[in-house]
C-alpha cells in the first residue's frame, strides 16, 4: 500500500513553491557557541570559545533588546558531511526557566524556517516582497524557547555532501538525524539540557513529531546519560493515519460544497482507503482526481480566503501548474493581526535568497549565494518511507504519560478537521471532558474535547497553518498546553 498511496499523496501535499527545486549545495560546518543572559546584570556571558551562532545585524530585523537568537548548522554525520540548519530564539524572558520547544514543518520537504519561524510563530514575520521583517507580538517565544529545524537534508539550507544520502530520505532517516541533531545541539547549548522539552509541528510533521518523540522516549530508557526531558507533543492539522486522512479529505470536500453529490457517491462506493490497491479501482481514481481538480480552483489549505495572484506567484506554464497540482495547491494564505496577505511564501523566498540575510544567518560566506526554497519537490517525489499510521505511537506515548495535544483549523481542506476526528476516534480513548467550546477574550475560539492522555481542539475560522489566521488565540492555546491546563470553557 505504501508505494500506491504515496503516488496519490503526491497529488496534495506541497504548496506552489515546490516548483522551484532545491540546489544541493556544499557547505562547511562551523562550531557554533552559546551565550546566555546573566541573571544579575543582563549582560551576556560566553559558555563556549566563540559566538558564531549569534545572529547580529539581520537585515530588516525590528529592534529588540529582551532576547537573543542564534542560527547555524549542526553536523549529524561527519563522514558524509550531513548538516541540518537551525534557528533558535531565546524565550523573551527567563529563558533558562522556560521550556524548550522544537518546531517542525512537514511536506515532506518544507522549511520550518520559511513557515513556522517567519510566517507563523516566530518573533519576526517576513514583510512585503521580502524587503524586511516585522515584529510578531504573538510569537510563541513569549512562553518558551523556540528551536526551528530545517529537516531533513535538502530542506531549506540543510544539506549533505554525499549525494547518496538524498536517495535514503524517509520517516526513519529523518527521525534519526533529528535525534542526533538534538544531542549535538545540546552540546552547543548545554544550559538548556535540563529544560522541559516538547516537540511541535504541523501537517506532515504529524508523522515527524510522534516518530521523533518515540525515538527520544526509547533512547531515554536505554541510556540515562543521553536523557532528554521530553514532556509531550503538540500537533496542528496533522497527517496521522492515511486511510482516515483520505476519508476525511473527501467527506470534508463534499460537506463544504467543493465536490458534487455524484462524485462523493462514486468515491463512497469505489474507494477503499484501507486497501493496498486503493488506486487500482479506476472509478475511485478518477473521482479522487475530480476532488483535486476542484480544489485547484481555490486554496485547499484555506477554503474561504483569496489566493496569491501576484506575478511572483506564477511559475511555469499552465500545463506544468496542472501537473504539479497533483502535488500541491495554491499558496497558503496568511492573516497576521487582522491583515490578510496570501503571498508570504513569495516574500520568504525573496528574503532568504538575499546574500546579506544568508551571511547574517551563517549559511553563506557573504560571497556565494545558496539557493533556498520554501519547499523541495525532489524530496517529496522521492520520499520512500512513510508510516501509514502513527496512531500506535500515540498509544505508546500516552501509556508512557506524555502529554499529547492535537488541534485543527476548521477551514483547512488538506488535512481537515474530519480527518483528525476520524483518526482520533479510532483510538477509542475514554472521554474525560465532553465536547464544548473554548474561549479567547470571551469569544468562542473553537471547540475541544479531553480524553485520557490527549486533548483535541479546533480553531474556528483558521486554515492549515493556524497561527497565521489566529495568532493571539494560538498563543493562548500554546500557553495552556505548556501549563497542562484545560482550555478556558467559560466566557469569564
**What is the number of strand segments?**
19
Shape: globular
Strand residue percentage: 15-25%
Which value, in Å, is the CA radius of gyration? 21 Å
User: Tell me about the biggest sheet?
Assistant: 11 strands, mixed
What is the CA-CA span between the terminal residues? 50 Å
- The secondary structure category is alpha/beta
Number of helices: 15
Poorly predicted parts? 1-7, 9-50, 312-339
Portion of residues within helices: 25-40%
What would the average pLDDT be, to the nearest integer? 85
What does this protein structure show overall?
There is one protein chain. The longest helix is centred in the middle third of the chain and has 18 residues, at 171-188. By secondary structure, the protein is of the alpha/beta class. It has 15 helices and 19 strands. Mean pLDDT is 85; it is low at 1-7, 9-50 and 312-339. Strands 4, 5, 6, 9, 10, 11, 12, 16, 17, 18 and 19 form an 11-stranded mixed sheet that branches. It has a two-stranded parallel ribbon with strand order 1-13. It has a two-stranded antiparallel ribbon with strand order 2-3.
Amino acid at each position: 500500500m505504501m508505494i500506491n498511496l504515496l503516488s496519490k499523496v503526491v497529488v496534495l501535499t506541497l504548496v506552489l513553491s515546490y516548483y522551484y527545486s532545491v540546489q544541493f549545495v556544499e557547505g562547511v560546518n562551523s562550531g557554533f557557541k552559546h551565550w546566555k543572559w546573566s541573571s544579575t546584570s543582563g549582560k551576556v556571558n560566553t559558555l563556549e570559545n566563540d559566538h558564531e551562532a549569534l545572529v547580529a545585524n539581520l537585515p530588516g530585523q525590528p529592534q529588540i533588546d529582551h532576547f537573543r537568537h542564534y542560527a547555524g548548522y549542526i553536523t549529524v554525520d561527519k563522514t558524509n558531511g550531513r548538516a541540518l540548519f537551525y534557528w533558535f530564539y531565546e524565550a523573551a524572558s527567563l529563558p533558562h526557566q522556560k521550556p524548550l520547544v522544537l518546531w517542525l514543518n512537514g511536506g515532506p520537504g518544507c522549511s520550518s524556517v520559511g513557515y513556522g519561524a517567519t510566517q507563523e510563530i516566530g518573533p519576526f514575520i517576513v514583510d512585503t516582497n521580502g524587503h524586511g521583517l516585522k515584529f510578531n507580538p504573538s510569537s510563541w517565544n513569549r512562553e518558551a524557547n523556540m528551536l526551528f529545524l530545517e529537516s531533513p537534508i535538502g530542506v531549506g539550507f540543510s544539506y549533505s555532501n554525499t549525494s547518496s544520502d538524498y536517495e535514503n530520505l524517509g520517516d526513519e532517516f529523518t527521525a534519526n538525524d533529528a535525534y542526533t541533531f538534538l544531542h549535538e545541539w545540546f552540546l552547543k547549548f548545554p544550559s538548556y539540557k535540563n529544560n522541559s522539552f516538547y516537540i511541535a509541528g504541523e501537517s506532515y510533521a504529524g508523522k515527524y513529531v510522534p516518530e521523533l518523540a518515540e525515538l527520544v522516549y526509547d533512547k531515554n530508557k536505554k541510556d540515562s546519560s543521553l536523557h532528554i526531558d521530553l514532556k509531550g507533543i503538540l500537533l496542528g492539522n496533522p497527517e496521522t493515519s492515511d486511510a482516515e486522512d483520505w476519508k476525511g479529505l473527501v467527506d470534508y470536500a463534499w460537506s463544504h460544497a467543493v465536490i458534487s453529490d455524484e462524485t462523493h457517491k462514486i468515491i463512497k462506493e469505489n474507494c477503499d482507503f484501507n486497501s493496498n490497491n486503493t488506486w487500482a479501482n479506476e472509478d475511485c481514481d478518477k473521482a479522487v482526481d475530480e476532488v483535486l481538480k476542484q480544489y485547484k480552483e481555490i486554496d485547499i489549505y484555506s477554503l474561504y480566503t483569496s489566493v496569491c495572484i501576484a506575478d511572483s506567484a506564477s511559475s511555469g506554464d499552465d500545463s506544468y501548474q496542472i501537473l504539479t497540482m497533483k502535488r500541491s495547491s495554491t499558496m497558503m494564505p496568511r492573516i497576521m493581526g487582522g491583515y490578510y496577505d496570501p503571498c508570504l511564501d513569495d516574500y520568504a523566498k525573496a528574503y532568504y535568497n538575499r546574500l546579506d540575510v544568508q551571511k547574517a544567518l551563517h549559511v553563506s560566506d557573504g560571497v556565494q549565494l545558496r539557493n533556498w526554497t520554501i519547499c523541495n519537490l525532489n524530496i517529496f517525489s522521492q520520499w520512500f518511507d512513510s508510516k501509514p499510521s502513527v496512531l500506535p505511537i500515540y498509544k505508546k506515548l500516552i501509556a508512557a504519560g506524555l502529554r499529547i495535544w492535537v488541534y485543527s483549523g476548521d477551514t483547512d481542506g488538506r488535512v481537515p478537521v474530519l480527518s483528525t476526528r476520524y483518526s482520533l476516534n479510532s483510538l477509542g480513548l475514554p472521554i474525560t471532558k465532553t465536547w464544548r467550546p473554548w474561549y479567547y477574550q470571551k469569544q468562542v475560539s473553537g471547540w475541544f474535547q479531553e480524553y485520557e492522555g490527549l486533548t483535541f481542539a479546533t480553531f474556528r475560522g483558521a486554515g492549515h497553518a493556524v497561527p497565521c489566521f489566529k495568532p493571539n488565540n494560538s498563543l493562548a492555546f500554546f500557553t495552556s498546553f505548556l501549563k497542562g491546563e484545560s482550555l478556558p470553557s467559560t466566557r469569564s
